[in-house]
Amino acid sequence: MATRVDPNFMQSLEKFGVKDWKGCFHCGNCTASCPLIEEEYLFPRKVIRQAQMGLKDKLESNIDLWMCYFCGDCTKSCPREANPCEIMRSIRRYQMSAYDWTGLSKKFFTLQKWELSFFFGIGILILILFAIFLPPSPELWANPTRFINEQGGVMINNMVDGFSGEKFLYIIHYGDWIMAFVAGGLLITNILRMFYLSIWRDKSIHIPFHAYLTQLWKLIYHFATQPKLRKCDDKLYWLGHLVFMTGYTIMFVLIVGLLPRFQIEEVVPWYNWQRILGYYATIGIFVFLVPVVIGRFRKNKCKLKYSHFTDWHFIIVLGLTTISGILVHIFRLVGMPVATYFSYVIHLAILVPMIMIEVPFSKWSHLAYRPFAIYIAALKKAVVKKKQTEQVPVFA
Ligand code: SF4
Ligand code: SF4
Which ligand 1 atom sits nearest the alpha carbon of residue 77? Predict the structure, then answer.
């Protein structure tokens, strides 16, 4: 396979956030100080070198980028203030846009107006759909007590004009399924492209089918626990990230998979599983999000010193989704039907575009790409190991 060289590649990477790359003189301090390098993965210096040489193909297939957790330790050791951590992060944005066949990821990472237009476009569409097909019942104002149940809470599924509670619930439930199907489907096709660029394109690598099965546990293990992140200096960050990740994974499962059991009319006591899981997810998101926001404002940690606009977009939309979800919950509990209806609609108008942008195209997709990259690395390693054991020693 011919190697593509783009002499202007570093300049084009600037759109993805790379800033002080000219300072790097390849001393290797960053690689020496990285707690996550292994024999096979020598980053970030090697990655920076490939980028400076304009080796686009090599970078697109280079899964080393996914072994980095952006702890910032390397940036502290750089004598030229080239900020290798941020360079890695920016090149990863480029790589994610290379995985995405639709081209939207590139637009979202490089043009803020594209991300904002999509976000507001989908959000406004949700508001219009509610206004036309699921408007509030006029009785919400005329006779609000009709929507209050015996426990004093709002019957959330009965507030729409002309629909029974169950019918409304299933409209939202099937809508969630469509959203998950589209966002998940796009993400899966991007992951397949990641496989193509990283492993299938190289005809010299043949992965036996059984290796895909035997290495699968690594995919699950790394997705669930992020053990490499624990090797970085900031152990609390790993814990916060774990609680955060489990929190929004739980919330995703509750709203997409279990909505008929989660969004019920009865206000259940605080110790019921729906509320415990909901509270865990909410606390998990805030426990991580609040220190990250403070850190990005203060710029007191290497990893939070530079903020790309997609970093802020992710934080803001996730924060707004969580706050609007909390408001729905509070308005329900205190028995305010009108406020419950409108906060619910606004919540969905933020949540749906967030999922549609973040899951397949933007920052959130790293949650899937990273364990798949570790899986790909394990597959490659399995092949190399097999070849080594099959080699007959010359002097045997
Ligand atoms: S990024 Fe900094 S530490 Fe790393 S090789 Fe370049 S100059 Fe050295
Ligand atoms: S940010 Fe952390 S994990 Fe990434 S290359 Fe630097 S030291 Fe290694």
Answer: 3
Residue linked to tokens 């297939």 = 61
Burial class of 93 by CB neighbour count within 10 A (0 to 12, 13 to 18, 19+): buried
pLDDT tens readout for residues 252-300: 899 888 888 888 888 888 899 989 999 999 999 988 899 999 999 998 7
Going from the C-alpha of 319 to that of each of 112, 187, 277, 316, the distances in angstroms are 19, 23, 18, 5
Q: Is 284 in the pocket of ligand 2 (CB under 6 A)?
A: no
**How close is the Cα of 23 to the center of ligand 2, in Å?**
18
Helix 366-390 and helix 84-99, axial crossing angle in degrees, nearest 10:
90
Mutate to test the pocket of ligand 2, among 49, 71, 91, 241 (most ligand atoms within 8 A of CB): 71
* Average pLDDT estimate for 18-26: 82
Centre of ligand 2 to C-alpha 350, Å, is 33
pLDDT tens readout for residues 25-76: 999 999 999 988 887 778 899 999 998 899 988 888 888 889 898 888 898 8
| CA distance linking residue 160 with residue 168, whole number of Å | 7
Cβ–ligand 2 contact at 73 (below 6 Å): yes
Total-model pTM: 0.89
CA distance to 121, 122, 286, 295, 296, per residue, from 299 (Å): 32, 32, 19, 5, 5
CA distance 52 to 82: 13
Instruction: Print the SS3 string covering 12-77.
Output: HHHHHCCCCHHHCCCCCHHHHHCCCCECCECCCHHHHHHHHCCEHHHHHHCHHHHHCCCCCHHHHH
Residue extents of the structural domains in the chain: 9-16+25-99, 104-381
In angstroms, rounded to a whole number, what is the distance separating the alpha carbons of residues 155 and 150?
Answer: 10
What backbone phi and psi angles, to 5 degrees, belong to 225?
-125, -10
CB–CB of 227/240 below 8 Å?
no
Between CA 224 and CA 131 the distance in angstroms is 40
